[in-house]
Amino acid sequence: MASLEYYVQESQNLAVLGETASYIPALDEQDPSQFAVCLIDENGNQFLAGDTSTSFTLQSISKVISFIYACEEMTLDYVLQYVDVEPTGDSFNSIIRLENTEFGKPFNPMINAGAITITSLLPGQNREEKFQHLCDFMGKMIGKPVKINQEVYESEIKTADRNRSIAYYLKSNHILQGDVESVLDVYFRHCAIEVTVESLARIGLILSNDGVDPITNERFFSKEISKVAKALMLTCGMYNASGKFATFVGLPSKSGVSGGILSVAEHEDLQGLQGKIGIATFGPAIDPIGNSVAGIEFLKRISIEYDLSIF
Amino acid sequence: MASLEYYVQESQNLAVLGETASYIPALDEQDPSQFAVCLIDENGNQFLAGDTSTSFTLQSISKVISFIYACEEMTLDYVLQYVDVEPTGDSFNSIIRLENTEFGKPFNPMINAGAITITSLLPGQNREEKFQHLCDFMGKMIGKPVKINQEVYESEIKTADRNRSIAYYLKSNHILQGDVESVLDVYFRHCAIEVTVESLARIGLILSNDGVDPITNERFFSKEISKVAKALMLTCGMYNASGKFATFVGLPSKSGVSGGILSVAEHEDLQGLQGKIGIATFGPAIDPIGNSVAGIEFLKRISIEYDLSIF
Amino acid sequence: MASLEYYVQESQNLAVLGETASYIPALDEQDPSQFAVCLIDENGNQFLAGDTSTSFTLQSISKVISFIYACEEMTLDYVLQYVDVEPTGDSFNSIIRLENTEFGKPFNPMINAGAITITSLLPGQNREEKFQHLCDFMGKMIGKPVKINQEVYESEIKTADRNRSIAYYLKSNHILQGDVESVLDVYFRHCAIEVTVESLARIGLILSNDGVDPITNERFFSKEISKVAKALMLTCGMYNASGKFATFVGLPSKSGVSGGILSVAEHEDLQGLQGKIGIATFGPAIDPIGNSVAGIEFLKRISIEYDLSIF
Amino acid sequence: MASLEYYVQESQNLAVLGETASYIPALDEQDPSQFAVCLIDENGNQFLAGDTSTSFTLQSISKVISFIYACEEMTLDYVLQYVDVEPTGDSFNSIIRLENTEFGKPFNPMINAGAITITSLLPGQNREEKFQHLCDFMGKMIGKPVKINQEVYESEIKTADRNRSIAYYLKSNHILQGDVESVLDVYFRHCAIEVTVESLARIGLILSNDGVDPITNERFFSKEISKVAKALMLTCGMYNASGKFATFVGLPSKSGVSGGILSVAEHEDLQGLQGKIGIATFGPAIDPIGNSVAGIEFLKRISIEYDLSIF
């Protein structure tokens, strides 16, 4: 049986097949050959490899966190009045289904239309409060204050017209609540939150353990919400390759165009890691669909090697 | 042969089958039984019937005028780089084809996506200048200053999220030029320009006579632009009933949800009217597609009676 | 003023920009540099140029003839229960709108879905009778028996799966009447009918003269049906370039991928031709949309030169 | 903790909320209040409740079996050249995505377009052989000969035009292999295969145990294929409610409009059942989406009660 280190190396070698996201200068300037991995188990044992000190922005990974927080604060029933939980074969930024579907309800919270809607449901009197609440929630999970990458945030706001179009469409259908520009501002701040693989893997561990941090025994969200979130990650978490990832890797995961991937797993002895496991990878070279090339490869290889698939 | 008066009466009787547009209070409050008609020929002879003193807003009829003005000022070739001239079976406010078409170029200037794009191409340093230029152009054609219905304008700005969504989509595809909110502001002011059937029929007369007012001999736009505008009116001017209107009426026409219709015709002796003829009707009770019930009926009846169809 | 001969030559020179249709060997083997033109006026005066002896198959031009014949035999009202008359921006062989439209009624008779439906409405006990009736109708118009190109017919039947898919979709929506394979057989025979530019221009003349052959004074179809057919040709007759053709040429026309175009016009003195005029061109080099490059150019040039546009 | 018997009763009470499938008389005539359940564990322990002697046709459940068999015989790589494994929000019988997707490859084998393609890939010289091979494969799994409901098969063949349309579309895109009518014939025979909940649960047990029958230790398909099949069941197995079922039930499952559902689970002690478990339910009253009302309710209730969700 090959070691995790071996798979990290093998996967990093494939990074040359991808490219950094080009629509934002700050993302494009990342070193495409970077690759960092963190696994953490329920006893707090960690496996770390690569440039683990590098911070990267959550981008679409934030969709999982805002969804969980909105459900925890506003109840799952309330949130599901505004967003469905069905996968769709369309692009993450597609607007077509909003026109073709009765009421224009977004299909799921993992596409932009759904995530922008979720953002509009967050508790808080104004954009600052809404964002602060979310940061507090996330900060408690990772055990340190959350901060955003100002440069990325400002770039995203500037290139936001497609998302603005989606948001106004949702507003015209009475799906999006509140002021569009405020909602988008909070949305882009989520996307620009900086994490390391260590922080992200801790969130994965909490998800893996049904909402409770197994190291501190603190509960952050209900088991029910955890299950819904993991189901959404599996069915819709990897953009238009979600089906292939479910089929050939089989781990509930969510990726972002910055090159990060959040995953959850469980194993009896994964090179010493035991029980519930949170996984985070970061490799900024992404494939045309938007997923980290090295990250996908690593998760695929260890899923096969250690039989991690939930199927 | 029945008289025009007879057809006015017969058509007005059908107005009960329609309803006033409900999305704006100012439109909804119009008297649905109203009906006014004006025909004017190249010698200045007029036929007037009904409540001809009533003003109504142009709404989508403005799309023809802004298209003509943009082409006249910026050249047809320039304008056609941003908007195509193909009919589409989609709704006037559909966004789907922008996603499904390469480059996201709107199919024609008679749907909202196309008309908003046209508005963004108008000459002028800012929104005031852009709108003023257009008003000057139109004011010269109708021989009096142009003014807008402030209440309608403000209502439209407030309920504009679907159009805002379209505009930001166009912006994200680099089709719409300039600032979205400024463009939308000018667009909604166009829509809120007030006219009477007399003013509107005069514009029809100029269109009928290839861009020259036959009474004053003043040219307002080129013959080529006139032909393009009339072709667009015929193929795309009556919302999703454009094909049926072309087939069964056969007059280049453009309607608005306020209940107005602008048409052009030609005849040797239409109850005394001769040669090039401009026609305007106003009946605020519209059908589900958005066309004035009485207006459609009147144009259909006189087209058959006087063999006015261009086919 | 340049002569018609000059425009024929100029247009033929452009044929190199197109290519013969490649999906059927018999069409692909045509000489792409060929170009033939016939104009005939209401007094029987003809203008002929190019390889006028060459026969070519009607392909989509047959859609006009079968529509007219179905309306004449079954009434316009009956036919319009099964097919609408609205233009669409979709491809001629698109199936999407059948799924997205209530009842799945084809948008117009000039796209394959509409033309296949029309074929199913033709009178006759079986495929032989249906086709024979149509041939008789057309044969009387052109004054000689109609025959098909057997090789083309057999090729089309073999490569017919897309049309078969459309036909079964229509059948499942209860739009197409009768047996699918019989209907398709008659449909492909229509498409494979051979004509010369002289025969085709004669049909154009009859259309131009509202259903009556002005030379023999024989009526073939009603004025109403003639108007509907010409409106459809203008709004939907030139595939996805119908809008551009209406705008820049402005003659009701129908083209086929074999390279033929049928047009109608009217003029006081078009190089000696007077009054109602039928036009046919044949140039097998087609553009990517499916229209004859030389044919389009010729019609555009003479439309501008002689001011033939109906707008 | 409530008993399985209790949940069977509770779920059966809800059957009144559904209706039997109406498009085929033989399905419509089923007793809508019927409900049968079978669970079988890896030691051969069974739980049986309700009308377990009733046979019902597989309908869409056959899609799982034909997919597995095609992969086992032709290799997974080969099959995935023709069908993707991505979920889609479209209806099971939608044709739109075949037009909108490059190459027209069906999105997954659980929609009709994908399943018809899979059928065309089955080994065998002709339709009889193809079907016989599949029956042999399935017969070995359930330990008795497979037979079809002739009445259902004949009804489906008669009302097959929508599927015929899909098949010819696939053929025109060179996705479907072989003769369309033969493929459809085999496809409809699959759909008409009769099973009882006992037979179906046995197949579920084999799937649950990665392709090996744990009672006989016979391997029927590879672990890899088993994982792919279960991933497809989870992401696409319950029609347009697949996402909601994954979220709130979380068991890889496939349903058919006859009212059957095939599921897989695992538990330490589910009322005496231990380890890998196969589940089958049959309740012919279906919801508008096509899933058995009682079946969905039963699986949801026991998933919550026994914490069966894979998430």
TrEMBL record, chains A, B, C, D:
Q: Which SUPFAM superfamilies match?
A: beta-lactamase/transpeptidase-like (SSF56601)
Q: What is its EC number?
A: 3.5.1.2
The domain of life is: Bacteria
> Could you give a GO molecular-function term held by this entry?
glutaminase activity
Keyword set for this entry? Acetylation, Hydrolase
**Is DNA-binding there in the keyword field?**
no
Task: Give the reaction(s) catalysed.
Answer: L-glutamine + H2O = L-glutamate + NH4(+)
Q: Which residues bind substrate?
A: S60, N112, E156, N163, Y187, Y239, V257
Please indicate if the UniProt record lists Hydrolase as a keyword: yes
The annotated subunit structure for this chain is: Homotetramer.
- Member of which family? Belongs to the glutaminase family.
Cross-referenced PANTHER family, in alphabetical order? GLUTAMINASE, GLUTAMINASE 1
Q: What is this protein called?
A: Glutaminase
